[in-house]
Fold this sequence. Notes:
Blueprint: H1 2-22, E1 39-43, H2 56-69, H3 76-79, E2 99-109, E3 115-123, E4 133-142, E5 145-154
Antiparallel strand pairs: 1-2, 2-3, 3-4, 4-5
Amino acid sequence: MKKFLSVCLFVLIAACSKAESQTQPVTPTDNTNIDKDTVFSFDINTLTPGCNSESQMICAINASIKCTINPDFAECAELKAFMPNFVFMRDESLQRPTSQSYKISKIKPLSDGTLEVYTQSTCNGNWFGLCNGNIIYVMDNQNGNWAVKDIYAVEI
């Protein structure tokens, strides 16, 4: 009987260990280059194509903000398939910002391979309440590149 209980205990521990190892968060590969003191700023009159950051995550967030400010910006047409559809909505009542700044405060890997990038953001519009305050960009790795999958705001 002791042998049977020992085997059952071993199997239970092994099963729990395996379940825990499967839910470990994925560590982002390029967050080592992210300076959390850097403020990124964008204005509709000075938007430039491309990204000069070494971090794909920062480049993806920057592209999302550029398309938020101006959905007709040159890069946005090719990025439309990778971003949330509401970024490209057309309605005067949205109060789309013409300038926006952000600073990364935290990066949280999730168990499904996505990341949440927490930012402190400011803008001169409203845009669904997604450009002022604590804004979180949900990042998804698509074909080896990070892309903004969703954007939401939280009150901390």
